[in-house]
Design brief:
The chain is an alpha+beta fold and 164 residues long. The protein has helices at 14-30, 57-73, 106-119, 139-151; strands at 4-9, 40-43, 49-54, 88-90, 93-99, 124-128, 131-136, 159-161. Strand 6 and strand 7 (131-136) form a beta hairpin.
Length: 164
């Protein structure tokens, strides 16, 4: 009896985030309403997030909308953006740091395993650090679990890796 498994992780694709950043930057330079304003987007340390600069809160939201659209067009989850940090205003500039969410803590992992156990009692989810390993003897059950998790509305991004 063969056992199949995959891992559920909360990560983002760094290459895709690079592309999203470049596309958003390009669109900002071509937009008329951003001309002559301090509107800018920069990387946070080691590309773990972005720093958005604008002339007011409305411009910060407009830039974040551009980033969200670019994420959607590249089929990346918008939940990767952690927009909980406060907006800082100084010297006629407004800035906001938006780190990227990554990693499953215990609470998030427990939510994921609870949903799996509720719908698929034969599948065995197991928390292993910041990943959840899902094991089953049926590939169909594993595909069902993937579909179930994609349909759930978690407040963090989920991706699947390590298929065996």
């Amino acid at each position: 009896m063969a056992n199949f498994s995959f891992d559920v992780v909360s990560e983002y694709d760094k290459a895709e985030m690079n592309n999203v950043f470049d596309q958003a930057e390009r669109e900002m330079t071509s937009r008329y309403d951003f001309k002559g304003t301090p509107a800018a987007i920069e990387w946070l340390d080691d590309k773990k997030g972005i720093k958005v600069t604008g002339s007011g809160e409305w411009q910060i939201e407009a830039i974040l909308d551009i980033v969200r659209k670019k994420l959607a067009s590249r089929e990346q989850s918008q939940k990767v953006l952690d927009v909980t940090k406060e907006i800082v205003e100084s010297n006629l500039k407004t800035t906001k740091e938006v780190p990227f969410k990554q990693g499953l803590d215990q609470d998030k992992a427990k939510k994921v395993t609870a949903v799996i156990r509720e719908q698929f009692p034969k599948v065995k989810p197991q928390i292993q650090g910041d990943t959840v390993r899902v094991m089953s003897s049926s590939k169909d059950d594993l595909q069902g679990v993937m579909q179930l998790l994609k349909q759930q509305d978690f407040d963090f991004p989920l991706s699947f890796t390590n298929y065996r």
